[in-house]
Amino acid sequence: MSFLAKLLFKNKTQNIVSGNMDSVLIKGDELKRAVDEVFGRSLFIRLVDSGSCNACENELAALSNPYYDLERFGIKFVASPKHADVLIVTGCLTRNMLGPLLKTYENIPAPKFVITAGDCPETGGPFKDSYSVCGPVSKYFNVAMHINGCPPEPETLISGFLKFMDILKTSS
Ligand code: SF4
């Protein structure tokens, strides 16, 4: 890499990191305190793609990368519903996915909560007129929190988790 390219890359990286990281850390600290208070140390999430274009999962996956590193704020994605506190649903909910989604929810121990992420679970998004869509997700589940966006960016997701924690705190 040339000297000029290195300099441009360095400046660009510094801008990105210093610009957004402050806000991520502030929200993250708040999130950690709320998770400690409500769940006691950690909040485990099981994610189900109910029929998405995969962009929403990419944004959720970005939360686990070294930049956002959501686990340091006490939130972790888990493979088994039996270990989860929260079910996050992405996608427009296809008829094929309704059964697996209900089964996953059934296997989460109570008390359990459903969060929908992205526009699709609520509106069907670009797939809403398809014969294979049986959403919205709120027709089958009590949705505690909906996070808008197509797709919602990682910081929007963190803000959504914060609002969800506020809802839990005020209702307890
Ligand atoms: S909300 Fe947008 S990004 Fe997310 S699954 Fe639907 S179409 Fe894809």
Nutshell version of this structure?
With 172 residues, the chain is of the alpha/beta class.
Report on the structure:
By secondary structure, the protein is α/β, with parallel strands linked by helices. The protein has one domain (38-171): Rossmann fold (3-Layer(aba) Sandwich), CATH 3.40.50.12280. Helix content is 46%, strand content 15%. The protein has helices spanning 3-39, 55-62, 95-106, 120-123, 154-171, and strands spanning 43-49, 75-77, 86-90, 113-117, 143-147. Strands 2-1-3-4-5 form a 5-stranded parallel beta sheet, sandwiched between helices. Strand 4 (113-117), helix 4 and strand 5 form a beta-alpha-beta unit. Helix 1 runs parallel beside helix 5. It is globular, with a radius of gyration of 18 Å. The chain starts with a helix and ends with a helix. The relative contact order is 0.16. Bound molecules: iron/sulfur cluster. The site of iron/sulfur cluster has 13 residues, from helix 2.
Kindly report the spatial arrangement of strands forming the biggest sheet.
Answer: 2-1-3-4-5
Helix coverage percent:
40-55%
- Ligand types: iron/sulfur cluster
CATH class: Alpha Beta
- Largest sheet geometry: 5 strands, parallel
- Averaging pLDDT over every residue, what do you get? 90
Domain tally: 1
